[in-house]
Design brief:
By secondary structure, the protein is an alpha/beta fold. A 4-stranded parallel beta sheet has the order 2-1-3-4, sandwiched between helices.
Length: 273
């Protein structure tokens, strides 16, 4: 079993070894993660760190998506865990594609050494997921028990939630059938719907999603201490306000205050009516 932590890790690489994989998702952290990592690292990084620390994976692939995940990967490597780090550029231009293709080749070589298997190219991309329509666009990172609870509260008010998440909508990529394999794969990954760490993720991109989905407003759910989403939130708030799109920003931690969330979400719904 191969563990992966990010939607920018192409599943074609895992399938090319004939291995099963699991997307390691955040839930709750452990005392070990709190002892090993800084207190101002988000609960998602701490929770993923805890799961990897327990073992059960032949190898784990993480990405350099943020400083918190880089610190988690370094700590795991120091403790002897087989953790490989895929460096993902923040841009999607041709220089970035060339760099990322080289990173994918390096990742495959490392996996060949760990798994003692030869890699076979796989180009299938699976079903490309569709974004819903006619509701409130909920913008977040991966789905966790905490964000599931927030979405449940949103739906409980009668609002339809259109989920823009790297656990679902942002996971699909188109892979061309011709061309250098790693270049094609790198370009497909870097040009999928971006997350907040990518420079191509900007307020205009979210506004486009809102228009395409006939969205009535945007609810942004970000983990506490997430630098990428906190920076993104301020830019998004201004852009949506200028366009007259209602916006609600929610920060979540490992333990959430349901009563406070219900009050804020209900007030947002009433503003839309």
């Amino acid at each position: 079993m191969i563990g992966i932590t990010c939607s920018y890790i192409p599943i074609q690489v895992i399938n090319g070894f004939g291995e099963e994989f699991e997307r390691i998702k955040a839930s709750v952290s452990s005392s070990e993660s709190s002892a090993h990592l800084s207190h101002n690292i988000c609960f998602m990084a701490k929770s993923i760190y805890s799961k990897i620390l327990k073992g059960g994976y032949e190898a784990v692939i993480m990405t350099s998506c943020c400083d918190a995940m880089r610190r988690a990967a370094e700590n795991l490597q120091l403790r002897g865990n087989k953790v490989l780090v895929l460096h993902v550029p923040r841009k999607n231009d041709e220089h970035a594609v060339k760099y990322f293709a080289a990173q994918l080749r390096k990742l495959v070589k490392e996996l060949e050494g760990i798994l003692n298997k030869k890699f076979k190219q796989v180009r299938e991309c699976g079903t490309v997921k569709k974004l819903g329509s006619g509701g409130v666009l909920v913008n977040l990172t991966q789905l966790t028990p905490q964000t599931d609870k927030v979405i449940e509260i949103i739906k409980g008010t009668g609002m339809h939630a259109i989920i823009n998440s790297c656990s679902d909508y942002r996971t699909s990529i188109h892979v061309r059938k011709s061309g250098d394999y790693f270049t094609v794969l790198a370009r497909a990954c870097l040009n999928k719907i971006p997350c907040s760490r990518m420079l191509s993720h900007n307020p205009e991109r979210i506004l486009k999603l809102v228009r395409e989905a006939d969205g009535k407003g945007v609810i942004n759910i970000s983990p506490k201490f997430c630098d990428n989403m906190q920076y993104d939130k301020s830019l998004l708030s201004k852009a949506l306000k200028d366009e007259g799109v209602p916006f609600l920003a929610l920060d979540v931690d490992e333990l959430i205050n349901e009563g406070q969330l219900k009050t804020r979400i209900q007030a947002f719904k009433e503003m839309l009516e």
